[in-house]
Amino acid sequence: MKKILKGFLAVSLLVLFSATAHAAGMIKDYHAYRIKNQNIRTVIPVVDSILSKESNVKKLARNAYYATYGEEHYYIKFYPALHDTDVYIVSDASYDKENNGVTEFFTSQNYRYETLEDKEAYKEYKFDFIDYARSGALDGLFTLPDGLKPLKKGMSKLNDKMSKGNDKTSSIPYSEDNDPIDLTCVDSEEFYNADADVTVTVNEYRLKNKENKYVHAFEYVVKNNSDSDIKIEKVFSERLAGVKDVTTSTFVDMDRLDLADNLGVPLAVATGGLSLGFTVANNVRLAKVIKESTRFAHSLPENYDLKANSSMRILCLKFKDDPKPLQFTIQKQGQTYKFTY
Q1: Which residues are CB-neighbours of 100 under 8 A, at least 6 positions away?
Q2: pLDDT tens figures, 307-339
Q3: How far is CA 51 from the centre of its chain?
Q4: What is the spatial distance between Cα 57 and Cα 61, in angstroms, rounded to a whole number?
Q5: DSSP annotation of 265
Q6: What share of the chain has pLDDT > 90, as a percent?
Q7: Selection from 336, 127, 311 nearest residue 216 by Cα
Q8: Phi and psi (nearest 5°) for 230?
Q9: What CA dihedral angle connects 14, 16, 18 and 21, to 10 degrees?
Q10: How high is the pLDDT of residue 24?
Q11: What is the pLDDT of residues 64-122, one digit of tens each?
Q12: pLDDT, tens digit, 9 for 90 and up, residues 173-229
């Protein structure tokens, strides 16, 4: 019975693969570059000013663009890489990776660039493209539909319903964490509130396990620059990721990949070469996910006394597709200050 079921599913997926491939362009190229010594906040304004004049290009969410030239389609997305900027490209047209419109743009701006060699970054960018393509926004590029989308959507709604009526933060109490963070920092930004004389440094990290497909870890370093103590009365966010969000999305995704691998269906082409290897048992991987995520999924601090000329650290998880800022309410010498970063 099990063999029959696997065979039926395999045939069904192959039929779906063939039918969809005829309706949209087959992907031929995936490529990525790293622009050296140019932070994304300096690159994006230049890109926007140029591409806004192109009628064949539309801007998508989160620094992504989609270009259509006749039968050819190009998906381009820019990512922060700390002091550098990564550029990821997907196309259904074969092109010269050394000399093309993107590299010509680099040259015109005197950008120094190289082929992206960061494998973890490359895997994350591929997954982002696949997830976005499945939303229907890239109708000219073909990728395999997500058969478990209804389940993931249902679990997401359940998580939101459970969080309704509260600040949507973790039930794990806030605690100070001063241990080093052994993760790749992809972005860092510093803010200063002159009224409260407070500096907030926001660092964004790529996680090591499967949850990095959906969330990134964030570190907020809050420094009281003044000679007076302050009280961080409240830190609030409209939506942060908790352990239950991470485990739901990650576990469903692992099941999907394991199913594809067990069926032996040639999905690598359809999913842009995303690894489908079943190498570690689900329960082991899920344990790693929970361990890594829990550190960043504590409640946000309330009524925290921050001494003069000292710092504190806040760790949290944010959804990559919609990272919400933190809102601070601070008391200092009888005055209330509010700011959002």
Answers
A1: none
A2: 999 999 999 999 998 999 999 999 999 999 999
A3: 23
A4: 13
A5: -
A6: 53
A7: 127
A8: -130, 160
A9: -130
A10: 47
A11: 999 988 888 899 999 999 999 999 999 988 888 888 889 999 999 999 999 999 999 99
A12: 999 999 999 999 999 999 999 999 999 999 999 999 888 888 999 999 999 999 999
- Compute φ and ψ for 94, nearest 5 degrees: -75, 135
Backbone conformation region of residue 63, classed left if phi is above 0, alpha if psi is from -120 to 50, else beta:
left
CA dihedral 188, 90, 257, 291 (to 10 degrees): 0
DSSP classification of residue 93: S
- What integer pLDDT is reported at residue 331 of this predicted model? 97
Q: Are 139 and 66 in contact (CB under 8 A)?
A: no
Q: Cα separation of 101 and 72, whole Å?
A: 13
CA distances from 311 to 15, 80, 200, 229, 306 (A): 59, 26, 9, 11, 7
For residue 323, how many other CB atoms are within 10 A of its CB? Answer: 18
Cα→Cα distances 296→65, 214, 240, Å: 31, 14, 10
The DSSP secondary structure of 117-171, one letter per residue, reads --HHHHHHHHHHHHHHHTTTS-TTB-----TTHHHHHHHHHHHHHHHTTS----S
CB 94 within 8 A of CB 75: no
pLDDT of res. 206: 97
Question: Alpha helices of the chain — where are they, by DSSP H?
Answer: 2-23, 40-51, 101-108, 119-133, 149-163, 243-263, 282-294
Report the alpha-carbon distance of residue 153 to residue 130 in Å, rounded: 16
Residue 329: CB atoms within 10 Å: 15
Alpha carbon distance 259, 205 (integer Å): 30
For residue 1, give Cα distances in angstroms to 5, 8, 11, 147: 6, 11, 15, 21
Predicted model pTM: 0.79
